[in-house]
Amino acid sequence: MRDNRKSTDPGLSAAERKAQRSRQEAIADLEKAQRAFHENRERLRKERLRREEAAGPMLYPVPELPDDTLIEQVRFSTGIRNALNAAGMKTIGEVREMSDDNLLSLQDLGPSSISYLREALGLPSTDGVRPLDKKPA
Prior knowledge:
The structure is a single chain. By secondary structure, the protein is mainly alpha-helical. The protein has five helices and no strands. It has helices at about 15-55, 80-85, 90-95, 100-105, 110-120. It is elongated, with a radius of gyration of 28 Å. The model is unreliable at about 130-135 (pLDDT under 50).
C-alpha cells in the first residue's frame, strides 16, 4: 500500500508526514510478507499431501500388523524410526525377530523405546526371541 503522494494534511509537520509514510510502508511490507508466508505454507501443505498419497496410508503400530509391513509406513516416533533405519531394518518382522539385547545395542534406542515397540507390536520382552517356526497369522 505504498503511496508516493504527499500528505495534504496541513496540521502535520514534515517529520510527522515522514513517520506516517514510514508506518504505511512497514504495514505494506508486513502484509506482503504475510501473504507470501501463507502462499508458501499452502504450497508446502499440498506437496506433503501429494507425497503422503503417493506413499500410501500410514499405519498405527498394532499387534495385527503383518511382518512384511514396511517400517516407513508405520507411525513410529522419529527417534525410533531413525534408529531402525540406521540399523538397516526395513520391515516390522525384522523388529519382531530381534532380541531386546540386539535392539538395545542400536544407537538412540533405549529401554523405554524397546518397551514401547514390544507393547505396540504385541510381543512380550524377547530376552528369548520369538521362535522362527512360528508363522504370523
